[in-house]
Amino acid sequence: MTHSAPTPGAVAPVIELSGIRASHGEIEVLHGIDLTVPSGAVVALLGPNGAGKTTVMKVVSGLLPPASGTIRLAGRDVTGITATETARLGVCSIPEGRGVFANLTVRENLWVAAGHRVGLEELEEVAYTRFPRLGERRDQLAGSMSGGEQQMLALARALGTDPAVLLLDELSMGLALVVVRQVYDVIAALAAEGIAILLAEQFARIALPLADHAVLLAGGRVVHAGAPADVERELSTTYLGG
Ligand code: ATP
């Protein structure tokens, strides 16, 4: 393997995984993943159930230490650091299932997210400006809101931490198509603001139009990586028999 010297003035990718192997218990489920999220880019991480998308997200967010390989964030080798430390470095994840607290109100969910980096008032103002629906429902229990509203709350919580990169896992899960479109409109707006996004989706057609790059996983390996149009072509020939 050759390592070229970084170009002077070049911005390091926000995320760079090289040769990542990771296991759940005894069973290795990622078998040497290479994946790069350039600064400000949206990368779609695609693949069927069980391909390893969520496991990649866990490795990037520091929840699952890799057995081997390296993780770089903004050019810095951070392999082995904890989830708290990755969050401090600006990696923010919305896990599958959204990670909102059902028994807390919208405001309380925002309070919990506020942490030490931003003040609550500022967080609420930013959240309600971006998502007026949340402002109207600030005292409603999160668990009684619709799936789309909960996803908006999850995004609001994440954005309150002013992330450098968002890890979004299966945002469309359990949502009606019309709601998925609304959620994806928000993602497109965030991408346009320059936040780098790693977007895991089982349904490629939802994620690809938004992506700058796409990575197709199967069986814990990258089977294709490149421009979204190329990966879409690969998907239709490999999986749809086109
Ligand atoms: P999905 O789209 O269904 O969420 P995925 O691409 O996100 O799938 P992963 O959840 O990363 O896939 O799972 C990859 C493999 O690891 C699967 O075979 C899965 O059964 C296994 N796996 C995931 N989590 C665990 C766990 N906690 N313990 C044991 N095996 C696990």
Word description of this protein:
It is a single chain. With 242 residues, this protein is an alpha/beta fold. It has a single domain (13-232), classed as Rossmann fold, CATH 3.40.50.300. Helices cover 35% and strands 25% of the residues. It has helices at 53-61, 83-88, 106-114, 120-130, 132-136, 147-159, 177-192, 204-207, 228-238, and strands at 15-24, 27-37, 42-46, 68-73, 76-77, 91-94, 165-169, 196-201, 213-218, 221-226. The strands form two sheets. The chain has a six-stranded mixed sheet with strand order 6-7-8-3-9-10, sandwiched between helices. Strands 2-1-4-5 form a four-stranded antiparallel sheet, covered by helices on one side. Strand 1 and strand 2 form a beta hairpin. The radius of gyration is 18 Å and the shape is globular. 38% of the residues are buried. The structure holds adenosine-5'-triphosphate (ATP).
Question: SSE layout and pairings?
Answer:
Layout: E1 15-24, E2 27-37, E3 42-46, H1 53-61, E4 68-73, E5 76-77, H2 83-88, E6 91-94, H3 106-114, H4 120-130, H5 132-136, H6 147-159, E7 165-169, H7 177-192, E8 196-201, H8 204-207, E9 213-218, E10 221-226, H9 228-238
Parallel strand pairs: 3-8, 3-9, 6-7, 7-8
Antiparallel strand pairs: 1-2, 1-4, 4-5, 9-10
This protein binds adenosine-5'-triphosphate (ATP).
Number of helices in the DSSP assignment: 9
Terminal CA distance reads 35 Å
Task: Report the sheet-strand fraction.
Answer: 25-35%
Based on CA atoms alone, the radius of gyration comes out at 18 Å
Give the names of the bound compounds: adenosine-5'-triphosphate
Structural class: alpha/beta
Please identify the top-level CATH class: Alpha Beta
* CATH fold-type name: Rossmann fold
Q: Identify the overall geometry.
A: globular
| Arithmetic mean of pLDDT | 87
Encode the helix/strand succession as letters.
Answer: EEEHEEHEHHHHEHEHEEH
Instruction: Specify the helix fraction band.
Output: 25-40%
